[in-house]
Amino acid sequence: MTRIVVAGPRGKMGYEAVQLCIKEQDLTLVAVVDSKHDGMRLSDFPEFSDVDVPIYTEMDRCFSEQNVDVLVDLTTPAFGKKHMEIAFLHGVRPVVGTTGFSDQDISDLTRLAEEKQLGAIIAPNFAIGAILMMKFSQLAARYMPDVEIIEQHHDQKLDAPSGTALKTAQLIAQERQPKHQGHEQEVEERAGARGADYEGMRIHSVRLPGRVAHQEVLFGGEGQTLSIKHDSLNRKSFMPGVKLAIDQVLKLETLVYGLENLID
After folding, report:
1. Residue range(s) defining the domain that contains residue 162
2. What is the C-alpha separation between 109 and 242, in angstroms, rounded?
3. Is 179 annotated in the active site?
4. Angle 128-141/163-173 helices, nearest 10 degrees?
5. Is residue 178 located within the same domain as residue 219?
6. Catalytic residue among 81, 83, 153, 230
7. Do 11 and 118 fall within a single domain?
8. Is 116 a catalytic site residue?
9. Which residues bind (S)-2,3,4,5-tetrahydrodipicolinate (predicted)?
């Protein structure tokens, strides 16, 4: 039985993670960490009436008082790194769905994980279909190096481009040389019209109510185009990936950035 703490249970992803822990027979939720309601029980809230676990506002105290194997952190970029560092200090393996980590953050956290010989996973996207989209795009880039990325999310998302779009661009960049796309003399009549530039690739971010998580990778070639697209229609789509990450993090002694590294 794997003992889980969920950080951010009142968010939409956090709610689904709590339900995952209730549904899966090999997982048990021992506590949650929230920004408020310290000392209350999660069952005090109508949507969690059957989930009787304590709520903590201090992660350090939570880990000191509870026996925890894995932290599932679905909070915000401002807290993700701090929570991982606290988890390592207590021998807890973090699975983090928060994006916005810098390259230096990843390097620092990898060093901590290896010092403690603890597994850790940061996943810009938990949807298995999205991971396959990224891997397919990386393969396509070997043969069609002209590419742009369009990602769409709900209007409450904090970071742009999304972690998935940046991870996709990084994987594609491993297969193509940096190159300027478009006319050599093209001019943006409005700044940002061509999107963010990553080694010559353009990344376009859309933020609208009603969206969940969507990405299309467009490749162009002589007389042809290729579109690789993934849509998450609700947040349940992320839970198989969360379960995969929980199972795999117990076998690791370093940090893995991206679920694509866990899928052959």
Report:
1. 128-232
2. 20
3. no
4. 30
5. yes
6. 153
7. yes
8. no
9. 154, 163-164
